[in-house]
Specification:
It contains 11 helices and 10 strands. It has helices at about 25-35, 50-60, 85-95, 110-125, 140-145, 165-175, 195-205, 210-220, 230-240, 245-255, 270-284, and strands at about 5, 10-15, 15-20, 40-45, 70-75, 100-105, 130-135, 155-160, 180, 225. The relative contact order is 0.13.
Length: about 280
């Protein structure tokens, strides 16, 4: 398993398995299949509502806990000094582990500075091996890098061939922050799996479009987080290390960048309102 090293020396498996939108019914078996396939990086979140199922899979698996890189993310409603800390302790119970390899703040809204101080405390106490953020745009990431006691080690953001995040990568590299890509396949939007450029590159290497995308991320130094509940696709998504994209391939993929999210923008006031409304609805 290839890895990428964080600035504190912790190594992150470069090819991760995510469980966003994986149901409680499918989650345990999917994680077990991923671990049997060779995955050693599992990514979940409080807001995915499947931490317990991930924990059951880790307990049942023959893979030792120390060989698994486990990530979860703190949801907005758990932001706040003390509140964030307690929510992570609760996540540890659900995941049936006494430490996390990585804990992230899920969204750059709400009282994230207070929440981040709790992550620093958890890191200093040894309950987590690394801390970071998710969905932070370069300005918000640099803000934390400049003014937090411990700068983020990871920023998990949307990265795919249509939203390549060149500017975000530049700033992350400057501060030694590793990028992780959620939605590397953009959930199949914009007809991604039938894109002619990607299909041609795949045919050239006798690989699928999905494998081309994951290999492209790896060669850019970005951790990928693919998800599937299908055994064959899980195996296919893991098999990205026995071929290499050449410079011509990489340049062709560069031309697909629209610099636009396939989902939403955190700089849209309407989206921030939506997050606030979602929190209120879940509290009721």
């Amino acid at each position: 398993m290839e890895t990428m090293k964080l600035y504190n020396g912790v190594e992150v498996p470069a090819n991760g398995f995510g469980v966003y939108q994986v149901s409680k019914e499918d989650c345990k078996e999917s994680v077990l299949t991923a671990l049997k396939t060779g995955y050693r990086h599992i990514d979940t979140a409080q807001s995915y509502f499947n931490e317990s199922e991930v924990g059951e899979a880790l307990k049942e698996s023959d893979v030792p806990r120390k060989e698994i890189f486990l990530t979860t993310k703190v949801w907005i409603d758990n932001y706040g000094e003390g509140k964030t800390y307690d929510s992570v302790v609760e996540s540890l119970k659900k995941l049936q582990t006494d430490y996390l390899d990585l804990i992230l703040l899920h969204q750059p809204v709400g009282d994230y500075y207070a929440a981040y101080r709790d992550l620093e405390k958890l890191y200093e106490e040894g309950k987590v091996r690394a801390i970071g953020v998710s969905n932070f745009y370069p300005d918000r990431l640099v803000d934390l890098c400049m003014f937090a006691k411990i700068k983020p080690m990871v920023n998990q953001i949307e990265v795919n061939v249509f939203n390549q995040q060149v500017e975000a990568k530049k700033w992350a590299d400057k501060y030694g922050v590793v990028l992780e890509a959620w939605a590397p396949f953009a959930e199949g939007r914009n007809n991604m799996f039938h894109n002619e450029v990607l299909q041609a590159i795949g045919e050239k290497h006798n690989k699928s479009v999905a494998q081309v995308i994951l290999r492209w991320l790896y060669q850019r130094g970005i951790v990928s987080l693919a998800k599937s509940v299908h055994q064959e696709r899980i195996k296919e998504n893991f098999d990205i290390y026995l071929f290499e994209l050449d410079n011509d391939d990489m340049k062709k993929i560069e031309t697909l960048d629209t610099k636009t999210s396939s989902f939403f923008s955190h700089q849209d006031p309407g989206i921030i309102e939506w997050f606030g409304q979602l929190i209120q609805e879940r509290r009721q």
